[in-house]
Design brief:
The complex is a heterodimer of chains A (403) and B (261).
Chain A lengths: L2 E8 L3 H12 L4 E4 L4 H5 L7 E4 L1 H9 L3 H4 L4 E3 L1 E6 L5 E5 L9 E5 H12 L5 E4 L4 E6 L4 E5 L4 E9 L6 H5 L4 E17 L6 E7 L2 E8 L3 E9 L3 H5 L3 H12 L6 E17 L3 E2 L2 E3 L5 E2 L7 H21 L7 H29 L4 H16 L1 H11 L16
Parallel strand pairs in A: 1-2, 1-11, 2-8, 5-13, 11-18
Antiparallel strand pairs in A: 3-7, 4-7, 5-6, 9-10, 10-11, 12-15, 12-16, 13-14, 14-15, 16-19, 17-18
Helix pairs in contact in A: 1-5, 1-9, 9-10
Chain B lengths: L2 H11 L9 H8 L13 H22 L13 E5 L7 H6 L3 E5 L3 H13 L5 E3 L3 H7 L3 E7 L8 H10 L1 E12 L3 H14 L16 H10 L2 E12 L4 E5 L5 E8 L3
Parallel strand pairs in B: 1-2, 1-4, 2-3, 4-5
Antiparallel strand pairs in B: 5-8, 6-7, 6-8
Chain lengths: 403, 261
């Protein structure tokens, strides 16, 4: 007989691992399948990005027992300064406006991955299939069968697609997506600087796209530099000295001397939203459901909130002995998650469009918009709380409670 | 007599109208046995009401037997008898929660369907197409007896309640759920569910056999069972959800304890 699990998660990236750890903690029999060898995941060259962790996401990571490992590597974001090119207007978010907690934390993806992988080893009910890929999948009425590249066949009541923007599982379930390419590339690197960043994140809207300086631990900053597709390859291929000159021009000198730490990475940017988050015995989470513009640093947070509510539904159904692939659970998951994601897509997509251009008229409107928001504390607080992951009917893990 | 033979005997005598099951009732559900597990099929209402029923059963059992509802197998080793188990919609979740489940149904087709499904689910449930009376004859007793959406189908309610009581161990627990006999339950339980919405096949229920909570409670007390809680199960058409309420006018569920003697 095929090995049977309650849940099979396809994709062991940050979001897939987070769900895996959450299910591990509550004793759900789970398999995680990923085609990339674990060593590659942890190598310095694999992923140079850092993620912003909203307060709600931090609560979840804390509740599933991984935050304690990440904490020392997490840089609290105390203020956010948003500015529009050289316009005199800017929007200022201070964490003291909404309470004592920071606005969020910046953590390198490598640290996140390491802590999650370490935690997952503690759970005998989590089986990792790596480096193994799914060759084919059969969504039956009563269960799902996976044919794996190592020849194994496994089954589960519920399949979870956490396999990213180009999700294989999503394609197998014939779920269509709405995709809008941004014609922008995200250039990512880390710099060390002379003066302290004091926990301030800077978001500058330059005509070619947003340019973000995000504070990391050890007095470093993560740079997310959005550039038009036509220009990005040229910048990426510049000699180190020339690259740094281009970077300094955008970065400014307010933190003193800056030096590159590690490599430069680039990621094509597009909006990709699945038309459905569920189909028969399948739930999409993270980028498989919604990959968004990094402008507001919300991609991973959306994925975490997917995990939070899905884990809650899975654990509750499991404790009642109910079928985890039941339609009611899937429908509820979709209805809970869609609104939040679509809101975030609208905000990030709108911001990027509004700011990524040269129009003088628009710049005036933008300036007025920024200062209007700045002067209307309730609106500002709402935006802040949404970005902190604290708006709406919150899953228990996001409130920092056990399921 | 070998158990298998005894089982066979019961099955053979089932149509002889010599026990507390009416024949028309058995036929009605047998035709539907294969469809039990289709969440969009004729038993859709049961699939929808299942989570709230299971939550009710689990929370009361956990309180009564001092068990932890947050455990993945909260009902570990409790012996449970499910009378009128149908396709096993309650029996399987209870088995997954760790209970040793015996599930009986007067219809052999139901039992066959339930058995096949439980084997495919990798569960070990003791399914038998026998009557509750026959278990009394054998002197078997359980920690918990359930008769859910069953009592409105039996011929003689008083003797059925007595049989249930005889099957419970001292300090054991019992659950009944059924439809109340009110004008509202006639409109919603029969007219709406069977004729307007088509949730159930026409003729599934006979309103005259619906049971008032007061009738059930007094029968239970006569048979040394103490009703500890009665709750309504109400459907919200806006959210398409069932929830536990204080409104007993249509569907209700009752938890009782066997008095130790």
């Amino acid at each position: 007989m095929n090995k049977r699990f309650d849940v099979v998660i396809c994709g062991g990236g940050l979001v897939g691992l987070t769900l895996g750890v959450a299910l591990g903690q509550y004793g759900v029999e789970t398999a995680i399948i990923d085609s990339i060898p674990l060593d590659n995941y942890l190598s310095k060259e694999f992923d140079g990005r850092a993620s912003s962790i909203a307060l709600g996401s931090k609560n979840l990571l804390d509740t599933i027992g991984v935050w304690s490992n990440i904490k020392s590597q997490a840089q609290p974001i105390l203020q956010i300064r948003v500015s529009d090119g050289n316009s005199p207007f800017f929007l200022h978010y201070d964490h003291l406006d909404v309470g004592d907690d920071p606005l969020g934390w910046m953590v390198e993806n490598r640290s996140l991955r390491q802590s999650l992988l370490q935690k997952i080893k503690e759970y005998p009910n989590i089986k990792q299939y790596v480096p193994i890929s799914v060759k084919s999948v059969d969504f039956r009425n009563n269960f799902v069968i996976f044919n794996l590249s190592n020849g194994d066949k496994i089954e589960s009541s519920l399949a979870v697609a956490a396999d990213g923007r180009n999700s294989f599982m999503r394609q197998q379930a014939a779920i269509k997506v709405t995709e809008i390419p941004y014609k922008q590339t995200g250039i990512v690197c880390t710099v060390k600087h002379e003066y302290s960043h004091q926990g301030i994140a800077h978001e500058r809207f330059l005509p070619s796209g947003p340019f973000a300086i995000l504070p990391l631990a050890n007095n470093c900053s993560s740079i997310v530099w959005t550039e038009k597709n036509s220009i990005a390859p040229k910048i990426l291929n510049l000699k180190p000295q020339d690259f740094m000159n281009e970077l300094r021009e955008r970065f400014g000198n307010f933190l003193g001397r800056i030096d590159l730490v590690g490599s430069r990475w680039s990621y094509p940017l597009s909006l990709c939203h699945a038309n459905n988050y569920v189909s028969r015995r399948l739930a999409l989470i993270g980028d498989a459901a919604h990959s968004i513009h990094p402008i507001a640093g919300q991609g991973f947070n959306l994925g975490i909130r997917d995990c939070a509510i899905l884990a809650e539904f899975i654990v509750e159904n499991c404790r009642l002995g109910l079928d985890l692939g039941n339609d009611e659970l899937l429908k509820k998951y979709q209805s809970y998650r869609r609104f939040d994601s679509v809101m975030m897509i609208a905000v990030t997509h709108g911001l990027n469009h509004l700011f990524s251009n040269h129009s003088g008229a628009l710049q005036v409107v933008r300036g007025m918009g920024l200062s209007a928001v700045n002067q209307a504390p309730p609106i500002k607080r709402f935006f802040m709380r949404h970005a902190m992951g604290l708006v709406g009917d919150l899953p228990r893990l996001v409130r920092g409670e056990q399921i | 007599m070998e158990p298998a033979e005894s089982l066979k005997k019961h099955t053979n005598t089932m149509n002889k109208n010599d026990h507390n099951v009416s024949n028309e009732e058995v036929e009605k559900f047998s035709n539907l046995a294969d469809k039990w597990w289709d969440p969009h099929g004729p038993f859709r209402p049961l699939h929808q009401i299942n989570p709230v029923r299971l939550m009710y059963i689990r929370s009361n059992l956990c309180l009564h037997f001092n068990l932890n509802p947050q455990n993945m197998s909260p009902l570990l080793n409790l012996s449970i008898l499910d009378i009128g188990c149908g396709g096993g919609l309650i029996a399987e979740p209870l088995a997954k929660m760790g209970a040793n489940v015996t599930a009986i149904d007067a219809s052999e087709k139901n039992i066959n369907a339930a058995q096949i499904h439980s084997i495919n689910s990798g569960l070990n449930i003791n399914y038998k197409s026998v009557t509750a009376e026959s278990l009394v004859d054998k002197g078997i007793k359980f920690d918990v007896v359930l008769a859910l959406e069953t009592i409105e189908h039996v011929k003689d309610l008083a003797s059925f309640i007595k049989i249930c009581s005889l099957l419970i161990k001292p300090n054991g627990a019992v659950f009944f759920s059924t439809l109340n006999r009110t004008p509202k339950s006639w409109v919603l339980g029969i007219i709406a569910a069977e004729y307007v919405l088509g949730w159930l096949p026409r003729g599934t229920h006979d309103w005259k056999k619906f049971v008032k909570p007061s009738e059930l409670v007094s029968l239970m007390k006569q048979e040394q069972m103490n009703p500890s809680d009665i709750s309504g199960l109400s459907y919200n058409p806006l959210t398409n959800d069932w929830s536990k309420t204080n409104n007993l006018s249509v569907n209700y569920i009752l938890f009782g304890e066997k008095i130790i003697k």
